[in-house]
Design goal:
The complex is a heterodimer of chains A (182) and B (796). Chain A is of the alpha+beta class. Chain A is built from 6 helices and 5 strands, in the order E-E-H-E-E-E-H-H-H-H-H. A 5-stranded mixed β-sheet of chain A has the order 2-1-5-3-4, with helices on one face. In chain A, helix 2 packs across helix 5 and helix 3 crosses helix 5. The longest helix of chain A is centred in the last third of the chain and has 21 residues. Chain A is globular and about 50 Å long. The N and C termini of chain A lie far apart (53 Å). In chain A, 54% of the residues are buried. With 796 residues, chain B is of the alpha+beta class. Chain B has 3 domains: 156 residues, Aldehyde Oxidoreductase, domain 4 (2-Layer Sandwich); 186 residues, Aldehyde oxidase/xanthine dehydrogenase, a/b hammerhead (Aldehyde Oxidoreductase, domain 3), CATH 3.90.1170.50; 326 residues, 2-Layer Sandwich (Aldehyde Oxidoreductase, domain 4), CATH 3.30.365. Chain B is globular, with a radius of gyration of 27 Å. The N terminus of chain B is likely disordered. At the A-B interface, helix 1, helix 2, helix 3, helix 4 and helix 5 of A face helix 1 and helix 16 of B.
Chain lengths: 182, 796
């Protein structure tokens, strides 16, 4: 069958088997290997992408079901050379180790911040609770998302020319003592 | 929150100035953040075929017949291979890392559920899977042996009838320590406490499953193998031995690895199948297991049934520790441990205590369960050893009515006793335990926690405080004592400084997320003064890195880290000679500081390492006898293991209505000697603590009586999510290793080793009002509920 969808703002049309999973379509057909395949049962979340802006587990979505819809993957998170604040936060706060769960975690984090720009630690933990990281113990992922939230708040505050001095301290507490960074 | 001790520098050579160590963001992160990591399943080669494996649905059966004709006729199928076909090429069996043999594809019998029986090679993943359904295997089902206690009964079914003369399911016996001396201290002890403990079978379950892409070029006879391996060089040598391919024609590439934790140390049948398939079809072949295959067939961990005994004086002086272990090694002994250590490093079960005698006797057996035995960040069975000693010390504290912290403090090996030889022969290199313990207690607010607990108990609330103090042994070899199938446990390192002063360092170890590209750049930077950003770290490609045994048992920093420091010093020694020529002074008149040599007493006359690199490759003359270029290679053979230690305190609350355990706080103070990148160390500790929550409260690979694996998916095998773990509180002390070139010790597995007993001790502490002295992991609500009713049962 033929399927047409928009992936990272680019329309693609491919001939596929009806049973092809979205994760395999993205990885094997389109070569977008940032989305990973980890469990088949919707438990691990390494395959999380956006379908019309909502995080979904692409191992349990048929590629055909994405036909006519908007898909966004980790490859579509940065704006050109500029990393999304979530990506920056993961780097600044050591939110990744092996990197395998990272794309899915970041897609969920970005979606969380889009609907809740100032999530609490509990809200972040709930948002990523359908995904597994075997390396980090989650605390640094939580800090990474908080870093992004604060960074975005600061950027917005700068745009509106308001002060943001109280927020600057929070970035430091979120794991980024600037003087210690080599 | 975190309290830290000041860093203590004990470098051999005071002219080394730290420009490399400290918190540094990871050099490898940008590619992962953009989805540009390159894992095995990301490798796409022109004309590549896909391999899928048919696995046994039963735990024990004789294979009567296999009919592959329908599968061969299935659309897109290129080959179907059975064990009988491999046997014709003498490839049906392969050696394990423990000198046993394991079936690549079963020929005579299947010996565990999930065992490899046949494989299909097809044009895509889906076609390969379709064809598996069409292979018709007739099994004559046999009684399985699932309970290790049953394995040695006289009427137990024989599992390994493939081994000549084998008449029972005995795998090996092992003992350590002094039985008679231990008996003597137990005989005169005021108090003896005995406790049966089960460390259930668990699984590392890295987020990336295991897989390989094999690409055999028949024209030049070269095999390229991308595979999920923590030990690419050791694997290359073993493939040469198994497959008969010349070693120089095998290139093993271990690209980005999505977590290992020991799961990616062994050679699995799937890797060999992929190689065979590429040779047979003449095409590149990819094999990537799914999650169920990973959980049911690859290296498990633990599965020890232990009895721990501890003898002490009435006032709390520990005299001796004795243990008897029944070890379940599954259907094939696939343990990945140094060959002289069939029980890994379990011999460190005497822990951090200065005792008079110790003895361990172990029997290992075969059962109809998946092979393996050492995996899951255990430092070669130290997880089991630390769990044993830290649980029975708590049992002793309970018996004596002593505070568990006080009992530990009373029995620690004292700083002046290092290097300390334990009663089982391990030489602990350095340690200073009391400050580490005191720091953890201070961070936890230990006394206040005990007061809070007393108040809550009075109200009927269940709160527990658990302590574990561990000493690890990491960084195998030395090679005279430690080898894997005859390959000495040493590691090479090569450093080249390019003409413009940038450098490339090549490692034999392989990162699975530990951040080697950053840490090793920092180690070299510290020694040679080139900024870490200007140092490229290469690893995971046997054609382009020096030989070494790989990354497991927390050995990268202790072994390869030492190699990196020493190779950089070797390059610096050469640079000093070149600098003497450039500055026209004798070598003795040069002083080294921050990446430059200057003339003693005349700092204005100096040359940087970059100047020297250009001269080393340039047109001018070099001092007599000095070759051009600025590079060196070494192979580092450690003189001893390194012995990191740590103090962990866990606070749990238990809901009396549901028996649900919540880890409210976890305080971890680690001492891994010199700290290279504190951010990465903290990350390693966090991950290990989370493993500990999994093992203590959630994870178990269980089997039913027929040998069906009950943990065959992530719906059944529960791994902690963000909701099961607290925000970790970490601290550190620094006791450098005296024999390591930079004083560093390994830390990758410390938290996995140390955290399970802290959590279990906390749960048992919470259950004291119910008279509970012990309950085995995993402490799920139902098992805690049983314990609260006096019905705690072992999980197996």
């Amino acid at each position: 069958m033929q399927v047409t969808m928009t992936v990272n703002d680019v329309e693609v049309t491919r001939e596929i088997e009806a049973r092809l999973l979205l994760v395999h379509f993205l990885r094997d057909v389109l070569g977008l290997t940032g989305t990973h395949w980890g469990c088949d049962t919707s438990n691990c979340g390494t395959c999380v992408v956006w379908l019309d802006g909502e995080p979904v587990k692409s191992c349990t979505v048929l590629a055909a079901m994405a036909g006519g819809h908007q898909v966004r993957t980790v490859e579509g998170l940065a704006k050109g050379a500029e990393l999304d604040p979530v990506q920056q936060g993961f780097m600044q706060c050591h939110g990744l180790q092996c990197g395998f769960c990272t794309p899915g975690m970041m897609m969920t984090a970005r979606a969380l911040l889009d609907r809740n720009p100032d999530p609490s630690e509990t809200e972040i933990r709930e948002a990523i609770s359908g995904q597994i990281c075997r390396c980090t113990g989650y605390a640094t992922i939580v800090r990474s998302v908080r870093w992004a939230a604060v960074a975005e708040a600061q950027a917005a505050a700068q745009v509106t020319e308001t002060t943001e001095s109280s927020e600057a301290g929070e970035i430091d507490n979120a794991g980024q003592p600037a003087e210690a960074v080599a | 929150m975190t309290t830290v001790h000041e860093r203590v520098d004990t470098f051999h050579d005071n002219d080394q100035k730290p420009v490399g160590y400290g918190r540094m963001l990871r050099k490898e992160d940008p590619r992962f953040l953009r989805g540009r990591g390159r894992y095995v399943d990301d490798v796409q080669l022109p004309g590549m075929l896909h391999l899928a494996i048919l696995r046994s649905p039963v735990a024990h059966a004789r294979i009567v017949s296999i009919d592959t004709s329908a599968a061969e006729a299935s659309p897109g199928v290129k080959a179907v291979v059975t064990g009988a076909m491999l046997a014709q090429q003498n490839l049906a069996w392969m050696p394990t890392l423990s000198n046993d043999v394991q079936a690549v594809l079963a020929t005579d019998k299947v010996r565990f559920q999930g065992q490899e029986v046949a494989f299909v090679v097809a044009e895509d993943r889906y076609a390969a899977r379709d064809a598996l359904e069409l292979i018709d295997v007739e099994y004559d089902v046999l009684d399985p042996v699932i309970d290790a206690r049953r394995a040695l009964e006289s009427d137990a079914p024989l599992i390994r009838d493939d081994l000549d003369g084998k008449t029972n399911n005995h795998c090996f016996d092992w003992e350590t320590g002094d039985e008679a001396a231990t008996e003597a201290v137990f005989a005169r002890a005021d108090v003896v406490v005995s406790q049966d403990l089960v460390y259930p079978r668990v699984h590392p379950a890295p987020m990336e499953t295991c897989g390989a892409v094999a690409d055999y070029d028949a024209v030049d006879g070269k095999l390229r193998l991308w595979s999920t391996t923590q030990a690419p060089h050791a694997h290359r040598t073993l493939y040469a031995i198994v497959a008969g391919l010349p070693e120089h024609k095998i290139q093993v590439i271990s690209p980005d690895i999505g977590g290992g934790f020991g799961n990616k140390v062994p050679i699995y049948p799937g890797y060999v199948c992929a190689i065979v398939a590429s040779i047979v079809t003449g095409k590149p072949v990819k094999w990537m297991e799914d999650r169920s295959e990973n959980l049911i067939s690859t290296g498990f961990a633990r599965d020890y049934i232990m009895r721990g005994e501890i003898a002490a004086t009435r006032d709390g002086r520990i005299l001796g520790i004795r243990t008897n272990v029944l070890a379940d090694h599954g259907a094939f002994n696939g343990t990945a441990a140094p060959v002289k250590y069939p029980a890994g490093f379990f011999g460190v079960f005497t822990g951090s205590y200065d005792i008079e005698a110790a003895y361990c006797k172990m029997t290992a057996v075969y059962t109809n369960k998946a092979p393996g035995g050492v995996a899951y960040a255990c430092s070669f069975r130290i997880t089991e050893a630390v769990y044993l000693v830290e649980r029975i010390v708590d049992c002793l504290a309970d018996e004596l009515g002593m505070d568990p912290a006080e009992l530990r403090l009373k029995n620690f090996i004292q700083p002046e006793q290092f290097p300390y030889t334990t009663k089982t022969g391990w030489v602990y290199d350095s340690g200073n335990y009391e400050p580490t313990m005191r720091l953890a207690m201070e961070m936890a607010g230990y006394d206040e926690l005990r007061r809070e607990q007393a108040e809550k108990r009075a109200r009927g609330e269940l709160m527990g405080i658990g302590i574990a103090f561990f000493t690890e042994a990491v960084g195998a070899g030395p090679r005279k004592d430690m080898d894997i199938l005859g390959l000495g446990m040493a590691d090479g390192c090569e450093l080249r400084v390019h003409p413009t002063g940038k450098a490339v360092v090549r490692l034999s170890v392989q990162s699975q997320g530990q951040g080697h590209e950053t840490t090793f750049a920092q180690i070299v930077a510290e020694e040679i003064g080139i900024p870490p950003a200007d140092i490229e770290v290469l690893h995971g490609d046997t054609d382009n890195t020096p030989f070494g045994l790989g990354t497991y048992g927390s050995r990268s920093t202790p072994v390869s880290g030492a190699a990196a420091a020493l190779v950089a010093r070797k390059v610096r020694d050469k640079a000093r000679i070149i600098a003497s020529g450039m500055l026209e002074v004798s070598v003795a008149d040069l002083e080294w500081e921050r990446g430059a040599f200057h003339v003693a007493g005349d700092p204005g006359r100096s040359v940087t390492i970059q100047d020297i690199a250009l001269r080393a490759h340039g047109a001018g003359d070099l001092p007599e006898g000095i070759e051009g270029g600025l590079e060196a290679q070494i192979c580092y053979n450690p003189s001893n293991l390194t012995y990191p230690h740590g103090a962990y305190i866990c606070v749990v609350d238990i809901d009396p209505g549901t028996a649900q355990v919540t880890v409210r706080r976890f305080i971890a103070v680690d001492d891994c000697g010199t700290r290279i990148n504190p951010m990465i160390i903290e990350g390693q500790v966090h991950g290990g603590l989370t493993d500990g929550v999994g093992m203590a409260l959630m994870e178990m690979i269980a089997f039913d009586e027929d040998g069906n694996c009950l943990g065959a998916s992530l719906m059944d095998y529960l791994i902690p999510t963000s909701l099961e773990v607290p925000d970790w509180e970490t601290g550190f002390t620094v006791t450098p290793s005296p024999h390591h070139p930079i004083g560093a010790k390994g830390v990758g597995e410390s938290a996995t080793v140390g955290s399970p007993p802290a959590i279990v001790n906390a749960v048992i502490d919470a259950l004291k009002p119910f008279g509970v002295r012990h309950a085995d992991m995993p402490l799920t609500p139902s098992r805690v509920w049983d314990a609260m009713r006096g019905q705690a049962r072992p999980p197996i």
